[in-house]
UniProtKB/TrEMBL annotation:
Residues 53-113 form the HTH tetR-type domain. Residues 76-95 bind DNA. This is TetR family transcriptional regulator. Keywords: DNA-binding. Coiled coil: none annotated.
Length: 256
């Protein structure tokens, strides 16, 4: 015969009773109109969501490294989880297909680029108030930083993803966000250099020239053939480019 004391001494049975008491208590609170406490449940749900998002970032960061080291052909679910140090099958649990993995990786690249862009914007705001720097020089520093370390991996991964973007609208959209952000920074840079009233047509031409030029610089950096050695040199080249576009624009419009 099992006594009540022995029953309660069993951890499993005791836990079952405790859960029963908790459920009964919550039911009574509902009957008498006392608000049900969801704080613990909400905290657990938020933690699980954070864990999922964190795991996705870890996998995407590993995918970026693989794209940089081995190219798109080397990207597999198995290699991603190995690089991330996670159990077999983890990658497929989050990204069922290779296309889904590529898209998520592109979104992660865009997310990291947005962080860099925000840093540039903040530094530009400080420079504009103190007049100790210009947006072009801050932009040049960001470009040169992308030639080393994790930023270089991201640049290489971005080119690999771009090769697939024309066949995948979602992938193209994620990478387009990066381009849009960079163009906006370029427009801000050249707007700051305008001597008088802002000429929007000129600003767009100059920003387009800057973006194209920097893409070329970045491409050479990615493949180990840098044509520019320092942020100072790049800043000078960008200033010369902006001035050249302005001169051409004024001549074309009969302003010189």
């Amino acid at each position: 015969m099992i006594t009540a004391r022995k029953y309660l001494e069993s951890p499993r049975k005791a836990g079952s009773i405790a859960r029963g008491f908790l459920a009964a208590g919550n039911y009574l609170r509902f009957l008498v109109g006392t608000p049900f406490d969801l704080s613990y449940t909400a905290r657990v749900a938020m933690k699980r969501k954070a864990d999922v998002e964190g795991r996705r970032r870890v996998l995407c960061d590993a995918a970026i490294q693989i794209l940089a080291d081995e190219g798109a052909k080397g990207l597999t679910h198995r290699k991603v989880e190995q690089r991330a140090g996670l159990p077999d099958g983890t990658t497929s649990s989050y990204f069922r297909t290779r296309s889904a993995l590529l898209r998520a990786t592109a979104e992660r690249v865009a997310e990291l680029d947005a962080i860099d862009f925000e840093e540039v914007v903040q530094r530009c705001a400080q420079a504009e108030t103190k007049t100790t720097d210009t947006t072009l020089s801050v932009l040049a520093e960001m470009v040169m930083r992308s030639a080393a370390g994790p930023a270089l991996d991201r640049s290489r991964a971005r080119y690999e993803l771009a090769l697939h973007a024309h066949r995948d609208e979602v992938l193209h959209s994620a990478l387009q966000d990066v381009t849009t952000g960079f163009v906006a920074l370029s427009e801000r840079a050249v707007t700051q250099l305008q001597p008088g009233p802002v000429d929007r047509a000129l600003v767009e031409k100059q920003a387009r020239a800057i973006t194209t030029f920097i893409n070329g610089v970045s491409f050479r950096q990615v493949f180990g053939h840098p044509g520019v050695e320092s942020a100072e040199e790049l800043t000078q080249l960008l200033h010369a480019l902006v001035a050249g576009v302005a001169a051409s624009h004024h001549v074309h419009n009969g302003q010189l």
